């Protein structure tokens, strides 16, 4: 049990570092834009770029892993991840910065899927959903501690120092991975790596992968521009924003922890209510943010809802893979990350367009559209599961 706890800690550390590296752009948007003399929208599009590369590269790398040692693949991908963050810290211009984010995004999704695969192998069956929720909680911890602390450090020293710290922490995590994770894990052998794609012949998978995509698209229309929402729409002072980002991250952490309980008790059946709450909070955001405290409550509640879909969706994919497509286990482990990042790319891109053409007032209703689609998809999926 002690070994499993330490291994769980290492897997959570992995997701924390990955989340810290991915999310921090939201907190340092202004500082990066100022240094490279580009617009905030241009820096915001780095979120979109990261998510698109993440979503495209993750399934390809997951397929290529095939029957290879999961341990060796994870070590190799972590070395590339560290290199990408070091390059970000050293980037002399916006072009090199964008390239470094591409390099980091290339391997981030595959690292997540490998962490989840290790977790599903290591945990007893009755603790699997809890461990998967714990692994995902690393992303929430990154929002709670990493983003606000990184924002504070960026404001008072340099945003580059944030990526030096990320690189250092990733190097420590690499050493822990090398020491404690089993070296003999592989997924079931297949005649050819494309046979892993057979999981997409299942109609439940075809529908189910839309849920994390639409969830994150709805949230990220607003989340990408949290800093302007706090400062411009609600008129909070600059030195308060780091605290507000901390609070938002804490709410998402609570949601992520509760996500494991939802997976055990209700599965995806509870998600229609979650998406309905998202819809009402987002569609009413132009009104609620006219009062800083009501608007703040709405945004923080959105933070709580942000990751509730994680564990129910991930357990849904893994159960289908284990029962019908065991050769696709690593690929199935990556579905939540792949399609969530497609949603992030879509939501941040739509958010950028709305911010440019309608200002902050169009952001909430734009996100509500995706929440409405998620309600329809989840209801259809529930109907399909009954048949």
From TrEMBL:
SUPFAM superfamilies assigned: MFS general substrate transporter (SSF103473)
Signal peptide positions on this chain: none
Gene3D superfamilies in the cross-refs: MFS general substrate transporter like domains (1.20.1250.20)
TM segment ranges: 9-29, 41-66, 73-96, 102-123, 130-150, 162-181, 207-226, 238-258, 270-287, 293-309, 329-356, 362-381
The keyword Nucleotidyltransferase belongs to this UniProt entry's keyword annotation: no
Keywords: Cell membrane, Membrane, Transmembrane, Transmembrane helix, Transport
Membrane topology, from the record: Multi-pass membrane protein
Subcellular location: Cell membrane
Pfam families: MFS_1 (PF07690)
First-listed, main subcellular location of the protein, grouped into a coarse class: membrane
Residue stretches making up the Major facilitator superfamily (MFS) profile domain: 7-387
One GO molecular-function entry: transmembrane transporter activity
Gene Ontology cellular-component terms listed: plasma membrane
PANTHER family: CHLORAMPHENICOL EFFLUX PUMP RV0191, PURINE EFFLUX PUMP PBUE
Protein name: MFS transporter
Species this protein is from: Ligilactobacillus ubinensis
């Amino acid at each position: 049990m002690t070994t499993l706890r330490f291994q769980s800690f290492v897997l959570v550390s992995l997701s924390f570092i990955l989340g810290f590296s991915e999310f921090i752009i939201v907190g340092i948007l202004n500082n990066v834009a100022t240094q490279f003399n580009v617009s905030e929208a241009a820096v915001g599009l780095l979120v979109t770029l990261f998510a698109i590369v993440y979503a495209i590269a993750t399934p390809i790398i997951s397929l290529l892993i095939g029957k290879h040692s999961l341990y060796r693949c994870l070590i190799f991908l972590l070395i590339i991840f560290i290199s990408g963050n070091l390059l970000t810290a050293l980037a002399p211009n916006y072009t090199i910065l964008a390239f470094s984010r591409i390099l980091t995004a290339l391997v981030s999704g595959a690292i997540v899927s490998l962490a989840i695969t290790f977790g599903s192998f290591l945990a007893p069956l009755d603790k699997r959903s809890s461990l998967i929720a714990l692994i995902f909680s690393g992303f929430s911890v990154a929002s709670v501690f990493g983003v606000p602390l990184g924002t504070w450090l960026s404001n008072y020293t340099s945003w580059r120092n944030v990526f030096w710290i990320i690189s250092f922490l990733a190097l420590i995590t690499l050493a822990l991975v090398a020491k404690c994770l089993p070296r003999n894990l592989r997924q079931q052998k297949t005649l050819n790596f494309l046979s892993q794609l057979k999981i997409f012949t299942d109609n439940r998978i075809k529908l189910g992968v839309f849920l994390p995509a639409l969830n994150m698209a709805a949230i990220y229309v607003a989340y990408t521009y949290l800093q302007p929402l706090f400062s411009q729409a609600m008129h909070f002072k600059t030195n308060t924003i780091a605290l507000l980002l901390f609070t938002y991250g804490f709410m998402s952490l609570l949601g992520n922890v509760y996500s494991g309980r939802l997976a055990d008790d209700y599965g995806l059946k509870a998600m229609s209510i979650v998406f309905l709450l998202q819809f009402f909070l987002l569609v009413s955001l132009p009104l609620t943010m006219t009062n800083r405290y009501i608007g703040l409550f709405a945004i923080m509640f959105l933070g709580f809802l942000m990751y509730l879909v994680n564990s129910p969706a991930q357990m849904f994919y893994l159960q289908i893979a284990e029962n019908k497509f065991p050769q696709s286990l690593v690929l199935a482990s990556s579905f939540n990350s792949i399609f969530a990042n497609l949603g992030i790319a879509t939501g941040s891109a739509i958010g950028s367009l709305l911010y440019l053409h309608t200002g902050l007032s169009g952001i909430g209703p734009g996100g509500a559209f995706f929440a409405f689609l998620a309600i329809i998809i989840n209801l259809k999926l529930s109907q399909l599961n009954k048949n």
